[in-house]
Amino acid sequence: MRLGSAELHVVSDGAIHMDGGAMFGVVPKAIWSRRRPPDRKNRVELGLNCLLIRAGGKNVLVDTGVGTKHSQRTRTIYRMRAGQLTPRLAEHGIRPEDIDLVVLTHLHFDHVGGCTRYRRRGRGSSSSNGSGELEPVFPNATHLVQRADWQEATETNERTRPAYNPEDFMPLAESRQLELLDGDTELLPGLWVRRIGGHTAGHQMAYLESNGEKAACFGDVIPTPEHLPLNYLTAFDLYPLDTLDAKRRWLAEAERENWLLLFGHGVAPKAGRLTRNAQGRLELTAVAVD
Ligand SMILES: [Zn+2]
User: If you measure from the C-alpha of residue 64 to the centroid of ligand 1, how many angstroms do you get, rounded to a whole number?
Assistant: First the structure.
């Protein structure tokens, strides 16, 4: 779709399933399961929605899904159907080498897995067998991360470590394709990242404004439309009260200015605009952003 003079597409890497209790935090299962019935292992489906923004002659990708490096065991645990980002980009006429900027909301494995892959070793050998040399998927792209997020991802503890896979992002530092940001930054005219914290200390959102039209992706601070109510916070959040503050502030602005909201883990819908129902509750009117 067009947003002002920019082009915007949701490009999916596939889907994974995560524990419903972890996704909805302190909200009782008796309540969240009405809208999102879990599978027999208590998992709910999550889209791996990346965003392709074409603006100012540049191709920008926001997040990259889980990619192709996972073992069969990990694929089974998360019921992964993934690694589809590159073919989906091709449907928009975009080759990996055409991507100029990769904005990473944060460095958790389900957002940066698609940044690297195992190097192909010639015909007949598998590129996703869990071994081999790594290479960046987007050879000409600068990858943008908040410095605070990089620090948290590279100095982990027992609580934070399982969400990271250093193979996703360390090769980007080695190939000098990484740029660390310190707070809010305008990447192109009208395209911003804003550090909003909450989920991780350096979690950032992407914000686009073009000819008066506005769109934003809040990453894992509001991962799905089901997380619009302020108290729906994931148990993965390292600073949940910061997530709460960020949601309170940015949802009010998004409603006032009729932003198009894009949800990194939404299944249906993946994007929409905010409205109020008769009870005064915030709702989403779906918008297709293919
Ligand atoms: Zn996530």
Answer: 11
Q: How far is the CA of 127 from the centre of ligand 1 (A)?
A: 24
Ligand 1 centroid–CA 265 distance in Å is 7
User: Residue 206 pLDDT > 60, yes or no?
Assistant: yes
Measured in Å, residue 211 CA sits from the centre of ligand 1 at 30
Q: What is the pTM of this model?
A: 0.94
What pLDDT does 159 receive?
A: 94
Q: Where are the domains of the chain?
A: 2-286
Q: What is the pLDDT of residues 92-122, one digit of tens each?
A: 999 999 999 999 999 999 999 999 999 976 5
Query: pLDDT category, 127, cuts 50, 70, 90?
Result: very low
Distance 57 CA to ligand 1 centre (A): 29
Q: Is 13 helix (H, G, I), strand (E, B) or coil?
A: strand
CATH number of 2-286: 3.60.15.10
From residue 12, alpha-carbon distances to 254, 274, 277 in Å are 24, 23, 30
